[in-house]
Specification:
Layout (H helix, E strand, L loop, with lengths): L16 H14 L8 E2 L1 H8 L3 H13 L4 E2 L5 E2 L5 H22 L5 H19 L3 H16 L5 H14 L23 H9 L3 H22 L6
Antiparallel strand pairs: 1-3, 2-3
Helix pairs in contact: 1-3, 1-7, 2-3, 4-7, 4-9, 5-6, 5-8, 8-9
Length: 230
C-alpha cells in the first residue's frame, strides 16, 4: 500500500496561551465579574490563572488600548470609575450597534441556537429571583452574545465587545438597586420577548426589543446609580 490514508478527522485547534489569558480576562470584564475601581496586577492575575506574568501583561496592555483599563503610576492597572456622561455615551452607542446585530441575527438563528437562548433567558430570570448578581451578569452576557456572535459581522461584534469591556464592570451597580432585591430588575426585562421575535424571524422586532432592554437599564442606572465625578 502506498500513499497517505485519510480518515476525515478534523485537525485539533490550538489557541496560544496569551489569547486564552486575554479571552478569560476579557470575559470577566464584559460579564461584570470584575468591578470598577479594582486594581489588577499581572502577578496576582497570573497566580489566579495558573500562568506566568508575560501573557497577563500582554493582555492588560491590550485592554488598556481598548480603554477597558487605565495604568496607575506604579504600573498596575485599574478598572476606571464610570462618570455619568461616559456611561450615557456608551449605552447610547450600544443601542446603535446591538440593535443592528440583533436584526442581522434574526435571519441566521437555528433551532439549536433558539433552544440555547431560551435556556439562557430562563437562567437569567432565575438568577434575578435568587438575587444572585454574579449569575445574573454572567447569564446576561451569555444571552446577548449568543445573539451577537451569529450576526455575521465581525466588525459589529468587535465594536460590541469593546463597549462591553468598558461598561460591563459598572453593570454590577444593578446589584445595589431595587431595595436589595435583584428580582426588581425583571420589570426592565425583555429577554423572553427577544427570543420570541428571533424565533419568528422578525429582525426589526428583535432590534426594537434590544433597544428597549438596553435603554430601560440605562435610564434606571442614570437615575439611581452612583457615578464618579471625575
Amino acid at each position: 500500500m502506498s500513499g497517505k490514508t485519510s480518515f476525515g478527522l478534523d485537525a485539533i485547534e490550538t489557541v496560544p496561551l496569551h489569547e486564552i489569558v486575554f479571552n478569560r480576562i476579557t470575559r470577566a470584564l464584559m460579564s461584570g465579574q470584575i468591578q470598577q475601581g479594582v486594581k489588577l496586577t499581572s502577578r496576582k492575575l497570573a497566580k489566579e490563572l495558573g500562568t506566568s506574568d508575560m501573557p497577563v501583561r500582554s493582555a492588560l496592555t491590550r485592554l488598556q488600548a481598548l480603554r477597558a483599563l487605565e495604568q496607575l503610576p506604579n504600573g498596575s492597572m485599574i478598572v476606571p470609575a464610570m462618570t455619568k456622561d461616559r456611561f450615557s455615551d456608551l449605552m447610547s452607542t450600544r443601542v446603535l450597534v446591538e440593535t443592528r446585530a440583533a436584526e442581522l441575527a434574526a435571519d441566521r438563528m437555528s433551532k439549536q441556537a433558539l433552544r440555547a437562548l431560551r435556556v439562557a433567558s430562563h437562567n437569567l430570570t432565575q438568577a434575578a429571583i435568587d438575587h444572585d448578581i454574579d449569575a445574573y451578569l454572567a447569564q446576561n452576557y451569555e444571552f446577548k452574545f449568543q445573539i451577537y456572535k451569529i450576526c455575521g459581522s465581525d466588525s459589529l461584534l468587535f465594536l460590541i465587545e469593546t463597549l462591553w469591556l468598558q461598561v460591563g464592570p459598572f453593570l454590577r451597580q444593578f446589584g445595589e438597586q431595587f431595595d436589595g432585591k435583584l428580582s426588581g430588575i425583571l420589570a426592565l426585562d425583555f429577554h423572553a420577548e427577544i427570543v420570541d421575535a428571533l424565533e419568528a424571524g422578525d429582525g426589526k422586532a428583535a432590534a426594537d426589543l434590544i433597544r428597549r432592554d438596553i435603554s430601560a437599564g440605562a435610564q434606571h442606572l442614570l437615575k439611581e446609580a452612583s457615578f464618579s465625578d471625575a
